Amino acid sequence: MTVSAPSPQLAVVSLLPAQRRDRIVDFLRRHGAVTLQQLAQAMDASVSTLRRDLDVLEADGVLDRTHGGALLRQQHYSTFEPDPAAAAELSPREKRAIGYAAAAGLAPGQSVIFDSGSTVMEAARAALERRIELVAVTNDLAVAQLLGTSALIRVHVLGGMLRKGSNTLMGDEVLSGARQIRADVLLMGAHAVTDGVLSETDPEVAAVKRALMQAATTRRLLVDASKFRPRAFMTICALGEFGEVITDSGIPAPALENLVQAGIQVTQVSVA
Q1: Where do the HTH deoR-type domain residues begin and end (predicted)?
Q2: 150 by DSSP, 3-state: which?
């Protein structure tokens, strides 16, 4: 299934090759990993030009190439996590389109768990725009604040300890609260999807996501194509525990084939 959605325009600035390569390195320092498509969105350069830049930086010993992107060499990738502001910078059009598709699949009156993260935030924003009645549950303060602006959405916040540098509530209180509910739908993100396994950089984050999964009847995974990448530190679950994956048309062909062969419903959004 393919879904199209409106997308915001990004401002681009022409850069000299040396400036562009410096910016690529800065992206990697801030994000841990980056795809060619993400770089192309942020810079006034073609994918072929950026591919050559990555080749030069790899030859200089700065980074390691991956399928469709790169990792900064000698950075502890498996436990590296960008701050929320940095994460929101990457693939904004894809995340917006994925959120639009996720919200379109919600029915009035449903109870919905909104996980923490920039892609799920876009789903919350799109649900708000639909102006439908929902019962929302979340452990993300920013998501709760956004949904709370609607008179049609009743918001339940799973209490806990605020994770440093983020809007996410963590800890035993969140786990206990999740055990008390049974929601219709879970909209969840993940740091990485690798060979049919979801993973996160932090054990507490992974534990919360597992608890949210157990609290929902229907589970939908919201991940842009860049999330199909090397495995992070802590396993969440097998991908087969989700009934649907909503991603963008840039998903690597092998990853898409694995999803289809596993019998998982895949919704691909297209970005203009």
Answers
A1: 17-72
A2: coil
User: For residue 19, what are its two tokens?
Assistant: 């400036």
CB atoms within 10 A of CB 29: 13
Residue 244 in contact with residue 76, Cβ under 8 Å? no
Query: Helix or strand or coil: residue 153?
Result: strand
The reported pLDDT for the residue numbered 69 is: 84
Q: How far apart are CA 155 and CA 95, in angstroms?
A: 23
Instruction: Dump pLDDT digits (tens) for 55-107.
Output: 999 988 888 888 778 887 766 666 666 666 666 677 889 999 999 999 999 99
DSSP 8-state class, residue 139: S
pLDDT single digits (tens) 19-34: 888 888 888 887 778 8
The structural domains of the chain, with segments of one domain joined by +, span 17-75, 86-271
3-state helix, strand, coil in the chain (%, to 5): 40, 25, 30
Domain at 17-75, CATH class: mainly alpha
Other CB atoms within 10 A of residue 246 CB: 28
> What does pTM read for this prediction?
0.79
Domain 86-271 sits in CATH 3.40.50.1360: yes
The region, left, alpha or beta by phi > 0 then psi within -120 to 50, assigned to residue 59 is alpha
* Residue 104 to residues 130, 132, 145, Cα–Cα distance (Å): 8, 11, 21
State the Cα–Cα distance between residues 233 and 175, nearest whole angstrom.
Answer: 20
